[in-house]
Each structure stands twice: as C-alpha cells, then as structure tokens.
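Is this the right way to post structure tokens for a design question? Let me know if I should format differently. Anyway, here goes:
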C-alpha cells in the first residue's frame, strides 16, 4: 500500500486492520464510482473489528462476509461470543434480501458440508453437497436465501437443529453448534488401524470409498523392500510432530508429522505426512537450516523461513516416542533434540490441503509457517493431540524451561 501513500487515498476497513485510515460506522454507506453503493455491516465475533460489506449496483446485490459467514458455515468465535455470532448471522446478515449473493473470505464449503450432514439431511444440504463435490469454488454461487435453507448456524430455530444440539435458546444452539463443529473431527471416524482424523482444522482422512491396496501391489512392495536400495528414506532419523499455519490464512492450521534426515550439520530435510499411519498422505516438505546459513539469505528470502523457538518452548513440537518406551526416559532424548531444533529456521510448503477436504493434492503449493505465541493457538488445539500420544505439552514446556532462547533474526 505504500505506493499509494502519495495519492492520499483512504484505506477503508476494520479499525484493527493494518494501514486502515477510515472505519465506517455500522450501516454507514459510501460509493465506489457513481454506481456501486457500499454499506458497512459490523459483525463482531470472529474478530471484534469484523465488517461485512454489502454492495449494490442497480438490482444486483452481493455481500462480502469475510470470516463471519461461509457457504454452509461460519467463522470461529476467536474474539467473540455465541450471542455476537447469532446477531451477526441471524439478525444482521439474515435481514439482507434473499437474492443477495454471498462471497466469503475462504473456500471451506467441502468441510462445512461434512458437518452439515451430521445435523441435517435435507434436500438443500444434499444439493449443496453435490455442488461442492463437483466444483472447486462456491463463492458467489449461493445467496442469503440459500444459506437460510441449509446453513445450520442460520437455522437455530429449526427443531431438527435444536434436537441435534440438545438446546432450544437460539444463542445456546449457536454456541453448541460451534462446539460440535470444532470437535467433530477430533475423534477417529474410521475403524482401528485406519488413518486418524486430525483436530487442527477439521482435517479429513483417507477417503473410505477408495479402493484398498491390491494383492499385486502388496507383493510388488514386498519384493521392492527386499531388492531395492532405499538409502535416502532409511536415512530418516527423527519423527517430529507439530502444527503448521497457512501463511496465506493464519486461521488455518494442520497437524504435521515430520520425518527428517540430515544432509549436513547445517541442513535437514523432512517429509511431512498427515498422520503417522502406513497409509498416511505426503502433504509437504520442510527444510531446516542453521542460523549460520540463514544469515546468508537476503531479506526477501528470509520471509519464507520461520523460527522454531515458540514451538520448542511451548511444548508444541514433540518427538513421539516408540511403543513400550517410558515417557520419562524418552523425554531425555527428545529434550536433547529440542536443544538443536530451537535454533533452526524452517521453510515449509504443503501440496495437499487435507484440512480443506481435498481428496488429491490440488492447486498451487502453500507456504506454511508456525505459531509464535500462546494467543495464536486455537482453544483445545494441543489437548486432543496430547491425549492421543499420552503426553503433556505443559509438562514439556516446564522441562524445556532451561533451554536458552536464541535471538530470532528477521
């Protein structure tokens, strides 16, 4: 935006947004050119400065809903309450004309439909599911009227939705729905031995309808193991588990299992899988380098690398122990590994957006980063992971207290 400073152009947005110069009041209107009328609709909840933008040009109407309303869903209540989201969806946005087209800030429809079908099995939900399965993009394809038909967060008075939540008060129903949406994928949905569902961002698992590995391929795999050289793979010396954050959208994160090997004392490389199971999907790669090499990078390249300081000090980054080895004994080795990792910088790309429900690696690679403070962590993120591995991030945090924090270079 700096290139436009000399033009003295206003930057219109929420009060806490970077570079904003003007924040309209709720329902205040302004013009873009001569034709387009814009109305600011304050919808605090996901963030307290959230604003949806209603735009009208003649008889055409659309609303940009940011992280408040998604097709078939709504945003998390990061800075707000169920009452605020109820007001935002069912009073502010629901009051718009039914033919107003909806443009959310993110494409989450596939994963939203998975939740909708656990609450409603109506024709409207089935139609949305069919559309999402056959189309990568859904923004602008549905209206406020459509949302009222299938979006359970806008149907808090529906007896079926109330029965699913065990609540009747609209605000209580809203709160319970969000809790259910947050937690539904935190438990395994497949039989024992299948890939487990990650809790981080409603992460999907292997498609249960896909064909199992054939006997022919199993035989070929066994023969290859006996005859071929797997030196690069056999060089893997550590399994690390943590959460990666999308650089393009810090509200999305994915639980990531790193299988790392050393190229040299200054360079490591890691294959990243969605689970530690045999049928895990390879979703990305991470390269880790020493501070010495990081110092040789120019400013533009450094922006692609992230520090591991918070991951180590918070207890988020773990090295899952082998079965049968007591946690107390394994943590000695794990903590020694953390003494090394804390100073490294990582460059990570994910190719497969499993949290979005993709059944294949689609689109461009996504640059990933890491959490850097407690405030950024979604509530309950570590709890489910810790229970699954039988560990305590808080205890690890205490035991790593002595590890000196290196200076983080920008």
């Amino acid at each position: 935006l700096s290139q436009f400073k000399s033009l003295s152009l206003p930057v219109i947005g929420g009060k806490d947004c970077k570079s904003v110069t003007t924040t309209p009041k709720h329902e205040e209107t302004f013009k873009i050119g001569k034709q387009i009328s814009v109305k600011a609709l304050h919808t605090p909840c996901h963030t307290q400065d959230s604003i949806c933008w209603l735009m009208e040009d003649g008889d055409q109407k659309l609303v940009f809903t940011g992280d408040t309303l998604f097709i078939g869903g709504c945003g998390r209540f990061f800075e707000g309450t169920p009452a605020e989201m109820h007001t935002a969806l069912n009073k502010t946005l629901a009051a718009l004309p039914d033919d107003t087209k909806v443009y959310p800030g993110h494409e989450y429809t596939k994963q939203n439909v998975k939740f909708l079908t656990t609450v409603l099995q109506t024709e409207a939900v089935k139609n949305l599911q069919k559309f999402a399965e056959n189309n990568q993009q859904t923004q602008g394809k549905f209206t406020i009227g459509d949302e009222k038909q299938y979006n359970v967060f806008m149907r808090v008075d529906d007896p079926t939705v109330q029965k699913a939540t065990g609540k009747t008060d609209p605000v209580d129903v809203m709160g319970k729905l969000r809790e259910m949406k947050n937690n539904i994928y935190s438990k395994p949905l497949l039989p024992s031995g299948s890939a487990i569902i990650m809790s981080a961002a409603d992460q999907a698992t292997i498609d249960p309808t896909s064909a199992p590995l054939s006997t022919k391929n199993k035989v070929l795999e066994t023969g290859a193991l006996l005859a071929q050289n797997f030196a690069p793979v056999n060089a893997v010396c550590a399994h690390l588990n943590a959460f990666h954050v999308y650089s393009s959208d810090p509200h999305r994160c994915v639980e990531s299992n790193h299988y790392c090997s050393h190229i040299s004392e200054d360079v490591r490389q890691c294959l990243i899988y969605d689970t530690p199971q045999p049928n895990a999907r390879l979703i990305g790669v991470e390269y880790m380098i020493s501070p010495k090499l990081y110092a040789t990078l120019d400013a533009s390249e450094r922006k692609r690398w992230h520090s591991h300081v918070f991951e180590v000090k918070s207890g988020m980054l773990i090295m899952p122990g082998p079965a049968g080895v007591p946690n107390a004994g394994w943590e000695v080795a794990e903590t020694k590994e953390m003494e090394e990792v804390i100073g490294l910088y990582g460059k990570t790309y994910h190719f497969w957006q499993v949290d979005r429900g993709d059944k294949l690696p689609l689109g461009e690679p996504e640059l990933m980063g890491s959490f850097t403070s407690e405030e950024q962590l979604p509530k309950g993120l570590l709890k489910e992971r810790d229970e699954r591995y039988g560990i305590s991030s808080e205890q690890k945090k205490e035991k790593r207290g002595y590890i000196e924090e290196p200076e983080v270079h920008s």
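Format looks fine. Someone answered above. Worth noting: Residues 185-209 have pLDDT under 50 and may be disordered. Residues 131 and 138 are 8 Å apart (CA to CA).
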